[in-house]
Design a protein that fits this description.
Number of helices of chain B: 12
Distance between the termini of chain B: 30 Å
Number of strands of chain A: 0
Radius of gyration of chain B: 23 Å
Distance between the termini of chain A: 6 Å
Shape of chain A: extended
Oligomer: heterotetramer
Order of helices and strands of chain A: HHHHHHHH
Number of strands of chain B: 6
Chains: A mainly alpha (246), B alpha/beta (286), C alpha/beta (269), D mainly alpha (214)
Chain lengths: 246, 286, 269, 214
């Protein structure tokens, strides 16, 4: 191993950034051993910086572009007798009004009931938004993809459908049935009315076994991505900071 | 506490230390890897080898620094190969955070081969719209990319003079951390008949094998393994030194092996001394 | 007929391809109303045991005995996410029990709206238990909406306050394992629940009890001990039974060459 | 105090959004678009509350000189560094996150901190695997086998002979049993979400308003 040491120069403009990033990186890694002052420092710094960054982004991307700019444009349009300006003015003001309801528990506890209206609006609206897509993507698509696989194993069925290609292999049939049984048994596991007894117990047990294989597979699949992230950080320390090239 | 108990209760800090060591050693000391090159990677390499000198290749750079560990090595190896063969490169990206990474890499490698921006290669930058961008490049690239990443008009870029659509490219390469391969297969290959080679991350790769079987893709480089294989091929063909993918792959292999060994050790301890059930068991049994 | 009329007057049209979704929704609402009505008439429903939920009382009791706190996180999503809403309803049940036993409850929050909601919800729970004097608003606090800064700070709380019981309920991303492993290392009892399919394996390996997917949604009903809310579980089971039968019969017919079932749900176009 | 008003608001707000999903009607569709667009403004307002909470927490620590109060100064330092460079400084046309100083803070402080926290997962995934993957029961054994087979299929640790088919086995596990398990979970989740959403809209679940058990 021949090392070509080229530690980043802490006095150059780029070098100081590398040094700071390196110290912070080590600070986080130090948590692996145990809680310590450096980690506490880094953790508190991160929370501060993170919270500050959110404010900056919210100001520039939300308030400045979606409230202040339309208000300015709208008022200008109204001055020029263009009635379309009103919507630019009213929309952000309405949103700000609902937003300000959230403050009442803090600034005026007596008006706390107004906050409940804001919550009711937010939760009601977003519950409503989800209903249609959930039914279509989580329920119908899952059922239809399971049936699609079965259809693909039947020459007759596949012939009647433009988007499905006939797969005559016996492995395709095996897989289609495997998935079908897995889904059916998995669903039985989730029945809340059924005590897991007798036939239900066997089906629910099969269901949970298949769930476990799925969980194990996802776990194993994730390892590589996580190790890649670590490799990236270590390469930063070795190459960018220490200038170590093996 | 006997040895079996100890095997079952190794302090997690020892595990952390072992992980750290098995990853850092290969990174500091990369060796050329003795791996078998898989068929999809070989096909990708050979397809790029067959691009005639002087023709054009389109690279869709669809990953950002978040996925660079898996995709950048392949991107670099392919750029070396293309410049070595004197092929002109046009880069576009469908990811907003990608242009800077693409630019840095292109600059770094093109200078090694004395290649000129605008003449031998160009970075047209990012355009939002995903599949719509891919589709529109079938009719006129100049329309969808009126200027390059630095704002220079395409009319004034010598390389872009004769490039209008997919017909002007010998090959399209998609380096993808998402599902953009789907768009290229549907549009660039399906609708406009372009030849396609792709590189993808480990999470996505499984979705794309069927394209290879159906010859919709001419080659597929999958994840870090694929990248390491590609570096191996480049080493054999052009004597290029194995780089980060090879080192990363060794670190990956060691890390996976270490985890499996720890699992085995824990189970050896467990079976040697079947203890009474712990609360963990119930949660798995429920 | 009605829609023709609406179309004529207001130019309202039904969006294309939403038929199956509408059918499922109507059937489900009918089931919901049917079981709710039964509950209002005094019917009680039998629900099977869910291991993680039976442990909730035990886990809160353990924190009380040890004189330590409970840490509850509602996940890393906003109030517009249904899993967060489910987590908030579970929080209210947990807060009531904590108020009853006088156990300290800490809720570090990721989203400020969720934080405000949590504060109000916990306050109401203490109010209902007549324990409003021991309600500490500052224990429900905001950290930051930056994913890993939030994670680092929660890890800090875990390692320094050493709560006896940790609830991880709601939607989580990659930080799930960081939180759960740190909680495990301090020896806390951990009950997790999420519908994030990719994060479930990590909770399964690191937590004592994990509510898998639908169990998270069932949890709030189950813990409410209120039969009109529990009736919704019956409606869910009804929906499941319907889909089960459809899938079972549908696959037999499909196997023998019929595309009927696929076309009903718009899957064969 | 009556909850009738808020419950009505939740019902109307919810039904309008459901209506938007099914119906093609200009006013309704643009209302729905409005809600989703302007929610971010409401959320931006809420950030003030969040920051106030953060300040209160740390100011309290400073005032009471609690353990580790000095670290609270660090939090304020980080916060104001971001705010000053991001809101009050301009450099040519560049402001906000584009301002070179703010961008410098982002690249050299926030980014490495986030990436390193994320990379800790590589360690934690190892310790979790070691501790939890014991063949205690059939479920636990399948969990552990599936994980190991997928890991072995990911990287060429074992090569030659039978082991050559590991990547194929991995792909089969991911495509078939894994797919089945995800589907079963997803269908359950779908029903749970739909039920929770409808409970909120119909006012069956009113915990968030307080006084759920009338």
């Amino acid at each position: 191993m021949i090392f070509n040491l080229l530690i980043a120069d802490p006095l150059s403009p780029e070098g100081i950034g590398v040094w700071i990033a390196a110290i912070l990186t080590i600070g986080i890694f130090s948590f692996l051993y145990k809680d310590n002052p450096l980690f506490k420092f880094v953790e508190h710094l991160y929370v501060g910086v993170g919270a500050g960054y959110i404010v900056v982004v919210a100001w520039h991307n939300d308030i400045a572009t979606n409230v202040i700019q339309p208000l300015k444009d709208g008022l200008l349009a109204i001055q020029n007798n263009d009635p379309s300006g009103w919507s630019d003015v009213i929309n952000p003001i309405m949103a700000c009004l609902i937003g300000s309801f959230l403050f009442f528990p803090v600034i005026a506890p007596r008006l706390r009931w107004l906050t409940k209206y804001a919550f009711a609006f937010i939760l009601g609206a977003f519950s409503g938004v989800k209903v249609g897509p959930v039914i279509s993507e989580k329920l119908i698509t899952q059922v239809s993809s399971t049936l699609n696989r079965i259809c693909a194993t039947s020459s007759e069925c596949a012939a009647q459908s433009a988007s499905i290609n006939y797969t005559p292999e016996s492995s395709a049939l095996f897989n289609a049935i495997f998935i079908l049984i897995g889904v059916l048994c998995g669903l039985i596991y989730f029945f809340f009315s059924l005590e897991h007894k007798g036939a239900t117990r066997i089906a629910a047990k099969t269901g949970i076994l298949i769930l476990m294989i799925g969980f194990g597979a996802s776990f194993g699949l994730t390892v590589m991505g996580r190790v890649s992230l670590l490799i990236d950080r270590i390469q930063f320390l070795l190459v960018d900071w220490l200038g170590l090239i093996g | 506490m006997n040895i079996w108990d100890k095997l079952q209760s190794i302090d997690r800090r020892w595990i952390f230390l072992v992980m750290f060591i098995v990853i850092i050693i290969p990174l500091m000391n990369p060796k050329s890897l003795d791996i078998n090159v898989s068929e999809p990677t070989r096909k990708a390499f050979e397809r790029i080898e067959n691009v005639p000198s002087g023709s054009n290749v389109l690279i869709s750079w669809d990953f950002d620094p978040g996925s660079q560990a898996e995709l950048l090595p392949t991107a670099k190896a392919m750029l070396h190969q293309l410049f070595e063969k004197n092929v002109n490169i046009v880069v576009i990206t469908l990811w907003p955070a990608a242009p800077t990474l693409a630019d840095t890499t292109l600059n770094e490698i093109s200078t090694l081969y004395n290649k000129q921006e605008g003449v031998d290669w160009v970075n047209l930058g990012f355009k939002p719209g995903l599949d719509i961008v891919v589709k529109s490049m079938g009719s006129d690239i100049h329309e969808i990319f009126p200027a390059d990443d630095k704002g220079k008009r395409v009319e004034n870029i010598p390389l872009m003079k004769d490039i209008r659509n997919y017909d002007d490219f010998n090959l399209v390469i998609d380096l993808s951390a998402g599902s953009s391969v789907d768009f290229y297969v549907e549009q660039a290959h399906g609708a406009y008949g372009a030849d396609l080679v792709a590189a993808a991350t480990g999470v996505m790769i499984g979705d794309f094998y069927p394209y290879l079987e159906a010859n919709q893709l001419q080659g597929l480089v999958g994840a870090l393994v694929g990248a390491a294989e590609y570096e191996k091929l480049m080493e054999k063909a052009y004597g290029l030194e194995p780089d980060k993918a090879t080192a990363g792959m060794q670190a990956q292999a060691k890390a996976h092996l270490a985890i499996i060994i720890f699992i085995v050790l824990g189970n050896i301890g467990f079976f040697a001394k079947r203890k009474k059930t712990s609360p963990k068991l119930e949660s798995l049994n429920k | 007929m009605i829609f023709n009329f609406l179309n004529l007057i207001f130019q309202i049209q039904i969006k294309e391809g939403k038929g199956p979704v509408f059918l499922v929704l109507v059937l489900f609402i009918c089931a919901l109303v049917f079981f709710l009505d039964k509950a209002r008439k005094g019917a009680s429903f039998k629900i099977r045991k869910i291991a993680g939920l039976d442990a909730v009382n035990e886990a809160i009791g353990r924190a009380t005995e040890m004189g330590k706190s409970i840490l509850y996180t509602t996940g890393l999503e906003t109030a517009s996410h249904i899993a967060t809403i489910a987590s908030l309803t579970i929080l209210s049940r947990v807060a009531k029990r904590a108020a009853r036993y006088g156990t300290r409850l800490q809720v570090p929050s990721f989203d400020p709206i969720v934080m405000t909601l949590s504060q109000e919800i916990v306050r109401e729970s203490y109010l209902e238990e007549g324990m409003i004097d021991s309600f500490r608003k500052d224990d429900i606090f905001y950290l930051t909406q930056e994913q890993f800064a939030y994670t680092a700070a929660v890890e800090g709380v875990l390692i320094r306050e050493k709560p006896a019981t940790v609830f991880l309920m709601g939607y989580f991303y990659a930080e799930s394992l960081l939180l759960a492993e740190t909680g495990n290392s301090i020896g806390a009892i951990q009950i997790a629940g999420t519908d994030a399919v990719t994060q479930l394996p990590f909770f399964i390996v690191s937590c004592d009890y994990t509510l898998i997917g639908e169990e998270l949604y069932a949890a709030s009903a189950y813990l409410s001990e209120d039969s009109s809310i529990i009736s919704s579980l019956k409606a869910q089971d009804f929906g499941k039974a319907l889909l089960w039968i459809f899938l079972f019969i549908g696959s037999i017919f499909t196997f023998f060459g019929s595309v009927k079932f696929l076309s009903i749900i718009g899957g064969s176009s | 105090m009556s909850n009738r008003g808020p419950l009505a608001v939740a019902f109307i707000a919810g039904m309008l959004m459901i209506g938007d999903y099914f119906l093609d009607w200009g006013p309704l569709n643009s209302y729905a678009e409005w809600v989703q667009k302007y929610y971010i403004i409401i959320a931006a307002f809420a950030i003030v509350l969040g920051v106030a909470s953060l300040f209160k927490l740390h100011l309290g620590k400073l005032k009471r000189k609690e353990d580790g109060w000095r670290y609270s100064i660090v939090t304020f330092f980080g916060f104001f560094a971001m705010i000053v460079t991001g809101l009050f400084m301009t450099s040519g046309d560049l402001t906000g996150t584009k301002h070179p100083w703010n961008a410098w803070l982002y690249t050299n402080v926030q980014l490495p901190l986030g990436a390193t926290m994320f990379s800790l997962l590589a360690f934690f995934i190892a310790s979790a695997a070691y501790r939890a993957f014991r063949a205690r029961s059939l479920e636990a054994t399948l969990l552990l086998l599936a994980a190991c087979l997928v890991m072995l299929g990911q990287v060429p640790i074992l090569t030659g002979g039978v082991f050559e088919s590991l990547p194929e086995i991995k792909q089969w596990i991911l495509d078939i049993p894994n797919m089945a398990s995800k589907r079963a979970i997803m269908i359950g989740v779908g029903l749970g979400m739909m039920s929770t959403a409808l409970k909120i809209i119909f006012g069956i679940e009113r915990t968030y308003l307080g006084g759920s058990e009338e």
